[in-house]
Design goal:
Shape: globular
Strand content: 5-15%
Strand order of the largest sheet: 1-2-3
Number of domains: 3
Number of helices: 11
Length: 321
């Protein structure tokens, strides 16, 4: 089982041999990487799923805990105890960039994308409100908001798909603006509104970094993470994407049908108000959405200053375009 030192795990991998199945944790030790046994499992699929779920915790994947609970159900007490003791340290180092890069490169038995988000938070048999039926719809405790387990889902698979699509389209528009050879000093707003008036005259370097803010948030969704803005540019990008996703949902039914055909439905789908309410630390950035005048150089550069209380972005991530 894992030792008591505080060296961060980089990733987890399953190992399958004729003698058994286990999950190995990879740590940096001395001049190299060492592997140590995290858990012994009775079968191969359990080891594969547990390793993937632990990597999901490192990535900040929203449903990783559910995946862990499912695979540990019915396993030995010592395995459940070892994994439970490990989880708090994985969450504290979840923004280590070397770990995120390694985990992202590993094969996974689960698909990336909107499917990683839940349709309900109801566990089916809840200690607070009992045996919820029909996704809590007929549960008096849930209807009154008295259960802290069966809370509404903020980001469902279909909501995630709508938001990811909007982020991609708006990001492309900002990249187009950065590549435009015409004089950007006119300060004209972009056609879809991705570039607010107050920064419409900025140079290509600003616009490329701003475009990457849309991509970073889309990557969060693709990896099953909440799109938590790490800077002002991401706050602006996310707000605009929520507005555009709501517009597309109402005005482009054929586009919506393409992801609804492959993603499960939820009674919490497309709650745009909840996204605005839960995904932002505050709403101080909103003044920038309709600010009529160009920002000063200091104000412009401040768009990319990281907040510090959310996982940082990888400085080596580059640009999509």
């Amino acid at each position: 089982m894992p030792s008591d030192d505080h060296d961060a795990f980089l990733a987890f991998v399953p190992e399958h041999t004729t003698s058994g199945h286990r999950v190995l944790g990879l740590r940096v030790r001395g001049d190299g990487v060492e592997a140590e046994t995290v858990a012994d499992l009775p079968d191969g699929p359990s080891a594969t799923v547990l390793a993937d779920a632990l990597n999901g915790v490192l990535r900040g994947q929203y449903t990783a805990d559910r995946q862990i609970n499912a695979v540990l159900d019915g396993t030995r007490d010592d395995v459940r105890t070892a994994v439970s003791r490990l989880l708090p340290s994985l969450r504290t180092v979840g923004d280590a960039q070397e770990s995120l890069r390694l985990v992202a490169a590993l094969p996974s038995p689960t698909e990336r994308g909107p499917e990683l988000f839940p349709t309900t938070n109801c566990p089916g048999l809840c200690e607070t409100c009992g045996d919820c039926q029909d996704d809590c719809q007929n549960c008096e405790e849930c209807a009154d908001g008295g259960c802290e387990t069966c809370l509404p889902v903020v980001i469902t698979p279909r909501t995630a798909a709508a938001l990811e699509q909007a982020l991609a389209v708006l990001g492309d528009e900002v990249y187009d603006a950065a590549e435009d050879t015409e004089d950007r000093s006119s300060g004209k707003p972009s056609p879809l509104g991705a570039v607010p008036t107050c920064v419409a005259g900025q140079d290509a370097w600003f616009l490329r970094r701003y475009a990457r803010a849309f991509d970073d948030l889309a990557t969060d969704l693709h990896e099953g993470r909440w799109p938590a803005p790490a800077c002002t540019a991401e706050e602006v990008a996310l707000d605009l994407a929520i507005q555009d996703a709501e517009r597309r949902h109402h005005d482009e039914p054929e586009l919506v049908a393409t992801w609804e055909a492959r993603l499960p439905a939820s009674r919490f789908d497309y709650d745009w108000f909840a996204l605005q309410d839960y995904l932002f630390q505050d709403k101080d950035y909103e003044v920038l959405l309709h600010h009529p005048d160009a920002l000063s150089d200091d104000e412009v550069e401040g768009w990319f200053g990281e907040f510090g209380n959310v996982p940082t972005r990888d400085p080596k991530r580059g640009f999509r375009r």
